[in-house]
From TrEMBL, chain A:
UniProt-listed InterPro entries: NDUFAF8
GO annotation terms (biological process): mitochondrial respiratory chain complex I assembly
GO cellular component, as recorded: mitochondrion
Gene: NDUFAF8
Protein's name according to its UniProt entry: NADH dehydrogenase [ubiquinone] 1 alpha subcomplex assembly factor 8
Automatic annotation (TrEMBL), chain B:
Subunit composition and interactions: Interacts with NDUFAF8, leading to stabilize NDUFAF5. Interacts with NDUFS7. Interacts with PYURF (via TRM112 domain); the interaction is direct and stabilizes NDUFAF5 protein.
Compartments where found: Mitochondrion
Gene Ontology MF terms in the entry: oxidoreductase activity; S-adenosylmethionine-dependent methyltransferase activity
Gene Ontology annotations for the cellular component aspect, listed alphabetically: mitochondrion
Family, as annotated: Belongs to the methyltransferase superfamily.
Record GO biological process: methylation; mitochondrial respiratory chain complex I assembly
Keyword terms of this UniProt record: Methyltransferase, Mitochondrion, Oxidoreductase, Transferase, Transit peptide
Keyword Methyltransferase: yes
InterPro entries: Malonyl-ACP_OMT, Methyltransf_11, SAM-dependent_MTases_sf
Gene: NDUFAF5
Protein name: Arginine-hydroxylase NDUFAF5, mitochondrial
Residues covered by the Methyltransferase type domain: 104-195
Main localisation: mitochondrion
Length: 70, 355
């Protein structure tokens, strides 16, 4: 189980799937950016709503690929 | 490439630096090693070994990162940037109408410059790097090379030896850049030339800004993820201070498009350019990464969906002083005064007549 770089390889393969899932959420990405450019001071959780939308879309895409026999 | 011990001992000055110049210990190391570092900076006779001992980067970690990167099965696919800069440096070497019997490559990686040069221009090449795997997996080249494991700040060579010193994209991880440049100046022969390439201040600004915005919004604050780079005016001062003459600094911007931020980060790691600054944050949250990728795409993305990353490179050329080099004229040697500038036409026709 613990061979050379097995854990790293596993974690990396999860990370490598990020871009594909991100691609599936294009609309949320755009709305998030729009809300992040208010011109005023950037505070924590200024765009929390948009981020949650992005995140849930991401998780949905991840679930799809996982159940799709990953 | 092979290590020649007999002729190496002529070149190496083991008496000048402590024998273990391979592993200069960094700060944050247990107390028993601290004495080492003091000895190293004490023995050095260069007057400007700074008492404040700049320590921004973890050199041990940088060596590990470079070793790891050089050992990857797919390392060739991360070579593109260093190949390109290496070939541009080789261009500059060719531009100089001279041959160099003995050359040194400081921080050579897997040898990106040497493979673009030919045997007529450079007789023999010394490749130095802190990562042994990089030297072991070096690219094929026609010039005879000798590989030496050495840190850029602690060059183990005698003075006035090399005709040419090159350095491609490795001095930006050096802690004490003035000292490294002074050492390079030292090992150069008079009328020798140093050609170097460094990453400049605008490098990866898109990544830096996206991470900063995302981290501020997600976590309420941000920490530096891209290492600090030298400013172009400082480069000129540094080279001058190190004793170089006839300086030239020019800048180049290479923009590479990536499918997204994650691919960019993966490539940076594959190149061995991961952050190793002491003040780096060890953890980057998934949420922050996701947010940063979104910001990156929206702020800087191209129409086709890819994102650009800018690499700003500063090329510097400096010469070691020699009597044959051009010098400014002596004070008081002027034959014409500025006040006579209005009569320049007469003066020029006078000159022509006397010829």
């Amino acid at each position: 189980m613990s061979g050379n770089g097995v854990v790293w390889g596993r974690v990396r393969s999860r990370l490598r799937a990020f871009p594909d899932r991100l691609a599936a959420c294009g609309a949320e990405v755009r709305s998030r950016q729009a809300s992040m450019a208010p011109g005023g001071r950037l505070r924590k959780d200024l765009c929390a709503q948009e981020f949650e939308a992005l995140r849930s879309c991401f998780v949905a895409a991840a679930k799809k690929t996982l159940t799709g026999g990953h | 490439m092979h290590l020649q011990t007999a002729s190496l001992l002529d070149m190496l000055r083991l008496t000048r630096f402590p024998p273990r110049w391979r592993r200069p210990p960094a700060a944050g190391v247990p107390a028993k090693n601290v004495g080492f570092r003091k000895v190293a900076s004490g023995v050095s006779s260069l007057g400007s070994a700074s008492p404040r001992s700049l320590n921004i980067f973890d050199r041990d970690l940088k060596r590990k990162q470079k070793n790891w990167a050089a050992r990857q099965p797919e390392r060739i696919k991360f070579d593109y940037l260093k190949e390109e800069v290496g070939s541009r440096i080789a261009d500059r070497v060719y531009d100089i109408a001279r041959d160099f019997p003995l050359a040194l490559d400081v921080g050579c990686g897997r040898g990106y410059i040497a493979q673009h040069l030919n045997k007529e221009t450079v007789g023999k090449f010394f490749q130095t790097d802190i990562a042994e795997n990089a030297l072991k997996n070096a690219l094929e080249m026609e010039i005879p090379t000798v590989s030496v494991l050495a840190d850029e700040e602690f060059l183990p060579f005698r003075e006035n030896i090399f005709d040419l010193v090159v350095s491609s994209l490795s001095l930006h991880w050096v802690n004490d850049l003035p000292r490294a440049l002074e050492q390079i100046h030292c090992v150069l022969k008079p009328d020798g030339v140093f050609i170097g390439a460094l990453f400049g201040g605008d490098t990866l600004y898109e990544l830096r800004c996206s991470l900063q915005l995302a981290e501020t919004e997600r976590e309420g604050g941000f920490s530096p993820h891209v290492s600090p780079f030298t400013a172009v005016n400082d480069l000129g001062h540094l080279l001058g201070r190190a004793g170089f003459n006839t300086l030239t600094v020019d800048t180049d911007e290479i923009q590479v498009n990536y499918p997204g931020m994650f691919e960019l980060m993966e490539d940076l790691q594959g190149m061995g350019e991961s952050n190793c600054a002491w003040n780096r944050k060890a953890l980057l949250h998934r949420d922050t990464m996701l947010a940063a990728a979104a910001v990156y795409r929206e702020m800087y993305g191209n129409e086709d969906g890819s994102v650009p990353a800018t690499y700003q490179i500063y090329y510097m050329i400096g010469w070691k002083y020699h009597d044959s080099q051009a010098r400014p004229a002596k004070r008081g040697s002027a034959t014409v005064s500025f006040g006579e500038l209005g009569k320049i036409n007469d003066l020029m026709s006078q000159g022509k007549k006397s010829q």
